[in-house]
Structure prediction request, 268 residues.
Amino acid sequence: MKPLLLSLAIAAAVSGCATTTSPTGRTQYVGAVSQQQLNQLGAQAFAEQKQKLPQSNDARQTAYVRCVVSDLVAALPAQWRQTGWETALFVDNDPNAFALPGGKVGVYTGIFKVARNQDQLAAVVAHEIGHVVSRHHDERITRQSGASGALQIVGALLGSRYGSGAANAAVQGGSILAQTGFLLPGSRAQESEADVVGQQLMAKAGFDPRAAVNLWQNMIAAGGSRPPQWLSTHPDPQSRIGELRARADGLVPAYEQARAAGRQPHCG
Prediction:
């Protein structure tokens, strides 16, 4: 029965794909898994990361990060605000962060080296939330929904329902993080889109969108001769900064309107 189950699941994953439009108007192919299944994978990937890395015991920093996440989530459309968002601050020197389907946000303590105020931290987190609301994880999995990619998905789903034995029988080796690419950098199109969506989100939440420029300047400076990993999926970091600066000018009115409406973050 297992080969039949796998065949049916692979067929279902491929046939379930659909065409949709991203927040910036880009055509996307999504739907290899349901949103519920996607959220389950996000929760499992988040649990794996908690097993790999210790969480910070610094109550002040943890509250700071949660405050920024909370203020950003409050500015999301209703369908995304309803997600039970969860935040974790991991002890790791890498200046990085991530967000996963199902509302899981992870921030590494190394980010404080480059995100030097609440607006710059909001730029980081909003970029990552931008990946979630733009359905980039769904898009990546759908791209991988040929035989190999679908087998990984099936293995994860079998494991959550029937235990590790079934998952290992379906797929040999590799974790959810590695096989689905949940924590890997997205394509250049996805990264650029997350910049756009994230900068819009931070402005709506009352964070200064111009801080995104300062953040990436800090990231480049911290990387020295080798650009940080976050910049590796973009053809030219300086061009990216130019795009962020140009968008920031146009988003200042939205930022000022949010502040006038009472959205004035006081996270740290």
In short: The first strand starts at residue 18 and ends at 21. The first helix runs from residue 2 to 15.
